[in-house]
Design a protein that fits this description.
By secondary structure, the chain is mostly helical. It contains ten helices and no strands. The termini are far apart.
Length: 157
């Protein structure tokens, strides 16, 4: 945690991003440690760097995959409400759209809802993809996500 305070960019580039991008080995323990580092040790001003490192790359669509634990980490980061670039937002949508087997996962549904509601300026640009994902959700959060998308569509018009 000390390294995150003194060398935040290095921790993001050398620890957080590679660990999360190694989707197959990103388990509960790695999620817990990585979440703790991001939430407790990194200054809030570096959270956008985490989003960039995870989602503004060609590997963005593989960040979530079918890994429910990666969903938990991404949800933790999104709940920090950090600023997000257009590239990172497009990567988040690519990751959400490419996720498989998570339709019944409540955390995944919450992640979709969180992105639509807290990052609405970015979500509006990806309405079609997000609508397709929301239509496939099989949790009670589907209704909330659908409602948030409808509100978003009404604002855009």
């Amino acid at each position: 945690e000390s390294a995150a305070r003194h060398h935040p960019r290095a921790v993001v580039q050398a620890f957080v991003a590679p660990l999360v991008h190694a989707n197959a080995t990103f388990g509960a323990q790695q999620c817990e440690v990585t979440s703790r580092v991001v939430k407790r040790s990194l200054q809030r001003s570096y959270v956008p760097d985490v989003l960039e490192a995870l989602f503004a790359s060609s590997a963005a669509d593989r960040v979530i995959g079918s890994n429910a634990i990666a969903v938990r980490f991404v949800l933790d980061v999104l709940n920090l409400r950090a600023a997000m670039s257009d590239n990172a937002a497009a990567g988040v949508v690519a990751a959400i759209g490419a996720a498989s087997g998570l339709e019944k996962n409540l955390k995944f549904s919450s992640l979709v809802f969180t992105f639509v509601s807290k990052y609405s300026q970015h979500a509006a640009r990806h309405h079609d993809t997000l609508s397709r994902v929301v239509a496939g959700l099989q949790t009670f959060m589907r209704k909330a996500a659908t409602s948030a998308l409808k509100k978003l569509a009404a604002k855009v018009k």
